[in-house]
Amino acid sequence: MNLPVPDPILLTNSHDGLDGPTYKKRRLDECEEAFQGTKVFVMPNGMLKSNQQLVDIIEKVKPEIRLLIEKCNTVKMWVQLLIPRIEDGNNFGVSI
């Protein structure tokens, strides 16, 4: 595959003091080309194809995960209903 690779992001640790002299920060209102938000990489050739095997596996597993979530919620509700309620302080020493 011939995929274009974006330039690496160079990060410097300005907190260790080894990078040299610190420079004054520019005010954002002076910069006319300032854009708000995060930078997003865009593939110049458009969208990439997804892995079809993974898509098939995900489509098979999704309904089972939803069923498992429903069953877990049912068990959680059942356990909550089994816990006796303490009403008016008349619990006669029964507590959980």
Automatic annotation (TrEMBL):
UniProt protein name: PSME3 isoform 14
Annotated family: Belongs to the PA28 family.
Coiled coil regions, renumbered to chain: none
Entries under InterPro entries matching the protein: PA28_C, PA28_C_sf, Proteasome_activ_PA28, Proteasome_activ_sf
Gene3D superfamilies referenced in this protein's UniProt entry, alphabetically: Proteasome activator pa28, C-terminal domain
UniProt GO cellular component terms: proteasome activator complex
Any Pfam family matching the protein: PA28_C
Organism: Pan troglodytes
